[in-house]
Amino acid sequence: MSLNIVLDNSIILDLLSRSINDTQHCFNRIRKVNIRFWIPSCLLSLLETQINLAHHVPLSQLLNNEDVQLLSSLAANWSLLPTRHRNRLQGLISLDAALLPGKTIIWTNQEHFETAEERVEWGDHEFLYGVLAESEYTDTVQLNNLVDQQLNIRTELEYGLFNNLRHGQYILGTEVFELEKQLARFIGVKHCISVGSGTDALLLSLLAADVSALDEVITSPFNFIAAAQMIAFIGAKPVFVDIDPETYNLDVNLLEAAITPQTRAIIPANLYGQCADYDSINAIAQTYRLMVIEDATQSFGARYKNRWSGSLTQMSCTGFTPSKPLGAYGDAGACFTNDDLLADKLRRLRVHGQKERYHHELIGINSRLDTIQANVLLAKLKIFPKEITARMEVGNRYTESLQNKVKTPVIQSYNQSCYSQYTIEVDERDLVRDKLAKRGIPTAVNYPLPLHLQPALSYLIQDKGSLPIAEAASKRVLSLPMDAYLTPEMQQEIIDAVKNAVK
Ligand SMILES: *Cc1c(COP(=O)(O)O)cnc(C)c1O
Fold first, then answer.
1. Measured between alpha carbons, how far is 497 from 241 in angstroms, rounded to an integer?
2. CATH 3.90.580 is held by the domain 3-139
């Protein structure tokens, strides 16, 4: 996690006049740990006056440093400041600083400081170096660290959210359509239809494909339940086909045998961020005139034969819950298609089947992506390509270090995984998991029970033993911490812990 260092005016003036000789040292040393510097915006006019008086280097020079950001001042903080607080400006800075996630220190040279907020500490030069030198200043490892990402795009996020409050179009605001345009362009598909969640995207796709009660839809038993559940939700029958033990995706060789006259569609999953074999799946689907709906929730950002996930079939779905590769700050999702008719239908289905207000031509639902979430996603989409590269690097580092110890993910030569999860296989998985937890390494099991064995789907009579590969995998898989901001140092800690735990 990040360490935030908020610079107070005394420090900023020192840095600008370069009277602190080891400034460079300071910036470099801390770059190793995830450190971010913040200049309180409530100080800016004061600083400019002081700088002009002292003929120092301009403030813009310091702000040009990519590790330095402006800290917003929240109007509410002024009223929250206790009147007895001795230094109003310092009080305000501490309240503004306390809104940053992660550990936060306000760096100062001034003698008298007082914090109005327990979550932040004030510290001088010596104190700061003490914190940085502390050998036990180790970050806690998280399964999926969203804090560093947020701090990177804080300015953008704040602007989007406040601008949304200004214009007040909370449903289907302009940002929603801007996001749809950008998402469609990003993966190279004509239409993006944003919806309320990944699950809704699957439901609406099934409705758009005219799948109805008693139809059969083939899908993977080793996946998050959403696809299978939405198939069942509309009264159709999920038919599970076992997975390939290498990729954990639908075993294409078993696909044809599962097709019956009732089969209408196939929903392949792209587990852990790696796409299924779509050329083969699409070819079989074409022969039997079936619709293929790609569940691209875990693979958004991944590529198959140099094409982006989400663009590989007639219609695709993705979800943007916070933990997904591209995540909002709440529920959100999208459907993609190149087909104008399907796009039009999806757009109607998400607003109660209406095109014209209060004229309902289809049975639909209410499922729209909030404008606020669109703003969050627009900010995140800007850094998404860089994050995918970083995720791939983290994945490769894991594989290099662990491949001789445990079964590491097998990525097909035509695939580029976005590693929504980095999932290994181990013997005695639960024991290994406990050992890692004791060392402060969080892990996840995706997924402990295949879908055909879930009580909600037990009526399907695909008994235990019928899908042996999925059942075996569910007992052995273990997902390690994975995000674009995992430092090599922290990753090494995880790797060492895993090697130790499987000894
Ligand atoms: C998370 C997930 C979903 C569901 O998405 P939501 O946005 O949470 O509704 C669907 N499919 C897969 C593969 C997922 O991982």
1. 35
2. no
Strand 191-195 vs strand 3-7: parallel, antiparallel, or unpaired?
A: unpaired
Taking Cα atoms as reference points, which of 474, 497, 489, 385 lies closest to residue 423? Answer: 474
Is the Cα torsion angle 355, 359, 365, 371 positive or negative in sign? Answer: positive
89 has pLDDT over 90:
no
Q: Distance between CA atoms of 227 and 222, rounded to whole angstroms?
A: 11
Task: Determine the distance separating the centroid of ligand 1 and the alpha carbon of 310, expressed in angstroms.
Answer: 14
Pocket test for ligand 1, best of 317, 321, 451, 479 (most atoms within 8 A of CB): 321
Mean pLDDT, range 112-133, rounded to an integer: 79
Q: What is the pLDDT of residues 484-499, one digit of tens each?
A: 999 898 899 999 999 9
Output the CA 226–ligand 1 centroid distance in Å.
Answer: 6
> In the prediction, which pLDDT does 118 show?
79
Cα–Cα distance measured from residue 290 to residue 480, given in angstroms and rounded to the nearest whole number: 36
Fold exhibited by the domain 154-377? Aspartate Aminotransferase; domain 2 (3.40.640)
How many Å apart are CA 453 and CA 467, to the nearest integer? 10
CB 96, CB 66: distance < 8 Å: no
Q: Kindly indicate whether the domain formed by 383-501 is annotated with CATH number 3.40.50.620.
A: no
Q: Cβ atoms within 10 A of the Cβ of 60, count? A: 8
Tokens 């207000």 found at: 357
Candidates 380, 386, 197; CA nearest to 295 is: 197
Cis peptide before 447 (omega within 30 of 0): yes
Ligand 1 pocket test, pick from 144, 199, 267 with the greatest ligand atom count within 8 Å of Cβ, gives 199
What ranges do the domains of the chain cover?
A: 3-139, 154-377, 383-501
Instruction: Tell me how crowded residue 288 is: count the other CB atoms within 10 A of its CB.
Output: 14
* Burial (CB count <10 Å: 0-12, 13-18, 19+), residue 169: exposed
Q: What's 189's DSSP letter?
A: -
